[in-house]
Amino acid sequence: MLKLGNLFGRSPVAPLQHHLAKVSECVSLLRPLFEAVKVRDEKRVVELIQEISKAEYAADLMKKDLRAKLPRSLFLSIDRNTILDILSLQDSIADQAEDVAVLTSFRLIEMSPAVEPLFADFFNKNLNTFRLVEKVISELDELLEASFIGVEAEHVGKLIHAVEKEEYETDLAQAALLRQLYKESDQLPYASFYHWQQTIRALSGISNLSEKLAHQMRSTLEL
Amino acid sequence: MDSTTVLILLTLFFAFYMAWNIGANDVSNAMGTSVGSGALKMWQAVALAAILEFCGAFFFGSYVSETMQTGIINPEYFASEPLTLVYGMISALIAAGVWLQIATFFGWPVSTTHAIVGALIGFGAVVGGAEAIHWSHIGLISFSWVLSPLGGGVMAFLIFTWVRNLIFHAEHPLEAAIRLTPWLTFFTVAVLTGIVLCKGLRGVEMAPHEVIFWCLIAGGLMALTCRAYAHRIRPNRSLHTTAPPIDPRLKVSLEKARQHLMKALDVSSDEFLRDRLDWMIEEIEQVNGPVVQRPESETAREFEVVERIFGYLQVITACFMAFVHGANDVANAVGPAAAAIDILFTGNVSSSGILPYWMLLLGGGGIVIGLATWGWRVMYTIGHKITSLTPSRGFSAEFGTATAVAIASALGMPISTTHTLVGAVLGVGLARGIGSINLIVLKDIVISWFVTIPAGAGIAVCCFYLVQTLFG
Question: Which residue of chain A is at minimal alpha-carbon distance from B22?
Answer without folding.
Answer: A1
